[in-house]
Amino acid sequence: MVINSYEEIAEFWDTHSLADYWDQTEPAAFEISPELRRRYLVAVEPDLLSRLRQAAHARGVSTESLINLLLEQRLREIESA
Hints:
The chain is an all-alpha fold. The chain has helices spanning 6-15, 46-59, 63-80.
């Protein structure tokens, strides 16, 4: 299976459980570099933030993850237009 986007990953895990694949996993050693991920302070309207939090909760992901997913999807749309 080839995964082309975070959206495809999200769709897969929305309908599957890691418990079904646990025996196929392997330990992985890795380091996370702080330089690879940056935080930006962005003003968000209170109502929009509330909706984002609700949508993230409904999908079982963090608000930050949902925002990144939505930004990536929209940017791809803009770039392909």
